[in-house]
């Protein structure tokens, strides 16, 4: 492993993630809160729910009751006046259903003078759920969608119609109370009705789109689920005020700033990355090969959310696949590619993402690993673990999508494309 580049990668990640923690953003958004004369209740859902709720209660001083539902391992302590629950992600589970029921009970019977402070972040689609179909069936549909390669908009268009809280229905349950919603965006372009499936936002998707997505991915659905997809969701809401705070664009800017501080010349390629993870990794590796040998330190940054088509039964996540796919292109170079999920989790693993450099391919082969076979089996986790290529941060407290960075060291030799290693 290239120790110097790994140190730089760790510094860049730490600085970037700290820059997009929701604390200050939540405090800024709360300046616009104008509560009524009644109670102020808090409901927070998503991977960043605890961090957002903690900042909100610290800023407000107190709330009259609250519920937080977040991913396992993401509750970092008690919050005065707020009950905190952990639940399953990316597949919803019984604990998530029970926690959502607690939130719905909290907002029952409110008056027009009451205010619901609703704090939402990515992951809420799985964590905040009251299913209209049996829980086991919803889990099966979620697993089908995750394995299909469907993007997050397609997934949420379907999930909204199977839920009693998504697609604006939670805000309806709060009426006539006013809902003040602070949203931490994890979807490209910040479409409010798609972030965590928009529990407090009028839905712009249609039943025709939901049925088309189900057909496109050949989902096995019960007659009940198919009938629900044919129903419409709320298209207007008059009791909600929304503030977006945080996005992948801010994460990319923070990464660029951290690279610059380390002497790299940063280039932001995109904050709208939305292709296959292994294609993105191969592309970043190709950029490295083209730009190597200029005698200066360069950094290429891409933010967004890639997808993975499951073809095997291994363990990994989209960021780990992206990194592993870059390994052959940068073999032998003074360069590195790394990619992380800003929430600290990548797929069903304890890793935030993956790191490879010019030494990774040789290390894999020396250990008896075939990178190509690992990708085909979706087993990037074990391959990277074998060469110390996992990035493990733990729960970060934020969730604004993923960032991938390609670093080129100053003394990188020029290379010829025709001798690029192949898998």
From TrEMBL:
<dbReference type="InterPro" id="IPR025286">
    <property type="entry name" value="MOFRL_assoc_dom"/>
</dbReference>
<protein>
    <submittedName>
        <fullName>MOFRL family protein</fullName>
    </submittedName>
</protein>
<dbReference type="InterPro" id="IPR038614">
    <property type="entry name" value="GK_N_sf"/>
</dbReference>
<dbReference type="InterPro" id="IPR037035">
    <property type="entry name" value="GK-like_C_sf"/>
</dbReference>
<dbReference type="InterPro" id="IPR007835">
    <property type="entry name" value="MOFRL"/>
</dbReference>
<dbReference type="GO" id="GO:0005737">
    <property type="term" value="C:cytoplasm"/>
</dbReference>
<dbReference type="Pfam" id="PF13660">
    <property type="entry name" value="DUF4147"/>
</dbReference>
<dbReference type="GO" id="GO:0008887">
    <property type="term" value="F:glycerate kinase activity"/>
</dbReference>
<dbReference type="Pfam" id="PF05161">
    <property type="entry name" value="MOFRL"/>
</dbReference>
<dbReference type="InterPro" id="IPR039760">
    <property type="entry name" value="MOFRL_protein"/>
</dbReference>
